[in-house]
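Hi! If you just cloned this repository, the fastest way to understand the data is to look at a raw example. We've pasted two of them here, unedited. The first protein comes first, obviously.
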Amino acid sequence: MTINVKASITGSLSTTGDLSTVLATFASAVAEISYAQGSGAAEADKAFADTRTLAASTTEDLDLAGSMTGIDGLTFAPAKVKAILVIAAAGNTNDVHVGGDANGLAGLFGNVNDLIVVKPGGAFLWAAPSGGLTVTAGTGDILQVANSSSGSSVTYSIVIIGASA
């Protein structure tokens, strides 16, 4: 297994004045993390990926301590989480909330009630080349995902990369 996580922002801005047009281009520093096969620093050996739908005003708890199936068809129960990507479908009306569970992954958020709001068509990416987030069964193993409101369902895609030790 080789996994690459990459994030960057590039673009241009054009403004028109009375006598000229100015075009400014920019490129951010690229954050790129590669994981080799294994369970140590800069290594990963567990992966979960799925596209899921939540009914209006519902919440689901993704239990990282063994109730999910990884992309290899085996139980997904990483000891450490190394990367998380959540992409909200562009056609959603409601937001996708990530986090906010009392038994959430320690270190992902400042407080257990904190969450990330992923707007329709938006994304949330978290990654760490070493260390990662420790999964502790019963007290620190939940990644909660919620539909922010009533009226319509939301669809989101999620990828979680982990290590067995």
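Ok, and the second one:
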Amino acid sequence: MFSRPFPRSLVILVVFIAIVNIIAIQYYWYWRMRWFDMPMHFLGGMWLAGMLLWFRFFSHPALEEPTRFSRILFWGLLGAGVLGFGWEVYESSVSLVTIGRINAIPDTLSDLCFDMAGGFLGSVIVWLKIKK
């Protein structure tokens, strides 16, 4: 097997997320549009899945390329889920320190669902690319 270079699509995605996030903070979109964090979590889940899948399967020549969709899906959802959960813990900690309360449970669950949905789509995209 051979290693694959870091995907440009992941660089473009994270730069896009960063630019939109900077604009959203500047113009208070997260507070004015309560739904705005949903697409951001979705895109973040896609990026996390893509990063973990590249690192796990394609970053080094000695790594074995996955042959089953279930392996791609497992690692993609694991990346989006674990790192998304970590982000929610961080976000709750910051909320507790700065405003004195933790975010609502439905918001946290929604964020995690969007992280996982993005991780699922990211996994599907990786699978389709390696089967091409």
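That's it. A detail worth noticing about the second one: The mean pLDDT is 92.
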